[in-house]
């Protein structure tokens, strides 16, 4: 006699319901575990940013102590946690933006600290094999390049403010945010870092009313197409300018010439 013959008909639906509940709980538990790991990684990354970066009033705006990061055992844990993360579990754009911006910045820092001392991140590559195309690190069990994260993941999301948030360890890059990006605050954080970047008249934005010229970062030239959907570069910068300058620019925008700052590739240390 087999055991299943002892089950009553009324018991079968209960057992089936329990099995379905258990099966549904597995991916839910995995998703919560992934979210917890990402939060822990952000916390540790944030602590390192607080300890080993400092705000400045010069062109760099955020200076990074790569030597200290290289010697901080917590950094290896941040990189290891990123490698064990599960980006496929990310469901909404805010989660994806925060995760991949942080990932880009972590891997850019990691490339530099691994090779430190170095004068520029570009020294880690060559004309025929630029650093952007080199394997930068592991995320979710596979290797990524900085180029892949920027061009294949972040840019297709259609959020031009990412260009103020991802930082390639260079003087003319936007300032590195000193707190990690989070899904809950991503919109406010992106606005804040855009304003900080554009407030710098040496690499972000400078309006010359006499010459009717608007000087902006070369990032706006390199990625001009990313700003077109929102009305172009001038339309993008207007909400982040001082009110008086923004009003003047709206009135004279037809006569304005866009010019671009030279890009300094020295290390933002």
The best one-word shape is globular
Q: How are the strands ordered across the major sheet?
A: 5-6-7
Q: Taking Cα atoms only, what radius of gyration do you get, to the nearest Å?
A: 23 Å
Distance between the termini: 77 Å
- List the secondary-structure elements in sequence, H or E: HEEHHHEEHHEEHHHHE
How many H/I helices?
A: 10
Number of strands: 7
* Uncertain stretches of 5 or more adjacent residues: 1-8, 12-33
- Percent of residues in helices comes to 40-55%
Mean pLDDT metric: 90
Beta-strand portion reads 5-15%
Oligomer status: single chain
Structural class: mainly alpha
Q: In this structure, how is the largest beta sheet organized?
A: 3 strands, mixed
Note down, in words, how this protein is organized.
The protein has about 270 residues and is mainly alpha-helical. The chain has a domain at about 30-200. The protein is about 45% helix and about 10% strand. The protein has helices at about 10-50, 65-70, 75-85, 95-115, 145-155, 185-200, 220, 225-230, 235, 245-250, and strands at about 55, 60-65, 135-140, 140-145, 205-210, 215, 255-260. The strands form three sheets. The protein has a three-stranded mixed beta sheet with strand order 5-6-7. Strands 1-2 form a two-stranded antiparallel ribbon. Strands 3-4 form a two-stranded antiparallel sheet. Helix 1 (about 10-50) packs antiparallel against helix 3 and helix 4 runs antiparallel to helix 5. The protein is globular and about 50 Å long. The model is unreliable at about 1-10 and about 10-35 (pLDDT under 50).
């Amino acid at each position: 006699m087999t055991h299943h013959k002892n089950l009553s008909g009324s018991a079968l639906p209960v057992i089936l319901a329990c099995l379905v509940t258990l099966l549904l709980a597995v991916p839910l538990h995995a998703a919560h575990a992934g979210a917890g790991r990402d939060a822990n990684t952000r916390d540790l990354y944030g602590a390192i940013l607080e300890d080993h970066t400092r705000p400045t009033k010069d062109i760099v705006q955020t200076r990074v102590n790569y030597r200290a990061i290289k010697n901080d055992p917590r950094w290896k844990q941040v990189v290891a946690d990123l490698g064990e993360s599960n980006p496929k579990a990310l469901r909404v754009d805010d989660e994806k933006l925060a995760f991949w911006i942080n990932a880009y910045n972590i891997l850019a820092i990691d490339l530099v600290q691994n090779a430190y001392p170095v004068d520029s991140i570009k020294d880690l590559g060559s004309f025929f094999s630029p650093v952007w195309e080199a394997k930068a690190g592991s995320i979710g069990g596979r290797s990524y390049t900085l180029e892949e994260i920027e061009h294949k993941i972040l840019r297709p999301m259609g959020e031009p403010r990412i260009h103020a948030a991802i930082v390639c360890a260079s003087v003319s890059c936007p300032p590195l945010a000193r707190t990690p990006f989070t899904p809950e605050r991503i919109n406010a954080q992106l606005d804040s870092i855009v304003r900080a970047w554009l407030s710098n008249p040496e690499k972000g934005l400078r309006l010359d009313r006499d010459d009717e010229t608007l000087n902006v970062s070369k990032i706006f030239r390199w990625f001009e197409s990313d700003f077109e959907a929102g009305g172009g570069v001038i339309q993008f910068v207007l909400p982040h300018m001082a009110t008086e300058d923004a009003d003047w620019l709206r009135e004279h925008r037809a006569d304005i010439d866009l010019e671009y700052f030279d890009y300094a590739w020295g290390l933002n240390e």
